[in-house]
Specification:
- The structure is a homodimer of 191-residue chains.
- Chain A is an alpha/beta fold and 191 residues long.
- Chain A has one domain: Maf protein, CATH 3.90.950.
- The first copy, chain A, is built from five helices and seven strands; from the N terminus they run E-H-E-H-E-E-H-E-E-E-H-H.
- In chain A, strands 1, 2, 3, 4, 5, 6 and 7 form a seven-stranded mixed β-sheet that branches.
- In chain A, helix 1 packs across helix 5.
- Chains A and B meet through helix 3 of A and helix 3 of B.
Chain lengths: 191, 191
């Protein structure tokens, strides 16, 4: 039996990417077709869970909502949950300017993926840590990808192929964890 | 008749300040005693209104919720609705660093004050514009007050007396507009 979850996202590419990861675990994703309620919080898990509860109240179907951000160590975790807003306003240049003269350039991309599958509520997380590059490099990806170099690599996320990035990304980790759980504990994909 | 409104705020000083402004218009403020739901949006009015609706659903009493932010012109309005988060993470130094070399140092403090008085929903706004100082000055106020010089003044908000700041502040403007409306249109304070 394949389990169907409704993913709240306005981005069809994100749906396709996530579908690739979870389909081999017997999980099928469908677009939720509703807007995402985003609360203000420093905690990604709280944001994702509030959005998932809100979506479930409207759809009354199993739902998934993910939220991601870049957490820069020397900036106390900024821009964190507000990464897309900060990217729109300041761009990668803003982060580089704030880090001028900083020795500590460590940062992590994090994802929280909230699932509502009544009566279950769970949040799966995925992190990838690395460093902020001195200058933007690469044309792929989006947002802060051109200045993020994951640990163990020399390329930025924006210099990697989509396939390579998806293998190690925070978002992919979170979706894999969810899919493993759905397969092992919810019986998705079993006859 | 004095009208009573429940103000959603965790800060007793804000309640007292606002009470002083509105009481002479026949409006009484009481603490709502509940948390504030804050959604993510670039628009202060949307944030205040969503919080007020949420509070009204719980209290079923006339409610007021305000939201404020500093909008820096050269940064596309950043930090805007996320001012308190950005202040905690980057401090005034972060804004000064982002503005290094910028000629345009204009900025506005803005407040949106949402009122629910069924069946009425209204948002009152207050703005004060000025410039970002080259260095922080003054010990009063809070947040970005030490780097904000309102137009027509040479002192920063943090160098002014509380009384003087309250006379010209964005927040005071919004509460005065609300109180004038309540007095003229809702009959508050009339026999």
């Amino acid at each position: 039996m394949a389990c169907r979850f409704y993913l709240v996202t306005g981005n069809i590419h994100k749906l396709e990417e996530a579908s690739k990861i979870v389909s081999r675990f017997g999980v099928e994703l469908a677009p939720a077709g509703i807007g995402k309620l985003e609360i203000q919080s420093e905690n990604l898990e709280d944001i994702a869970l509030a959005a998932a509860r809100h979506a479930y109240m409207r759809l009354k179907r199993p739902v998934l909502v993910d939220d991601s951000g870049l957490f820069v160590e020397a900036l106390g975790g900024f821009p964190g949950p507000y990464s897309s807003y900060v990217y729109r306003k300041l761009g990668v240049g803003g982060i580089l300017k704030l880090l001028e003269g900083a020795r500590d350039r460590r940062a992590c991309f994090k994802t929280a993926l909230a699932m509502i599958y009544p009566p279950l509520e769970k949040v799966f997380t995925g992190n990838v840590c690395g460093t902020i590059a001195d200058n933007p490099r690469g044309m792929g990806g989006f947002g802060f990808d051109p200045i993020f170099v994951p640990d163990g690599y020399t390329l930025t996320f924006a210099e990697m192929s989509l396939e390579e990035k998806n293998r190690i990304s925070h978002r992919a980790h979170a979706f894999r964890r969810f899919a493993e759980y759905a397969s092992a504990r919810l019986g998705c994909g079993k006859r």
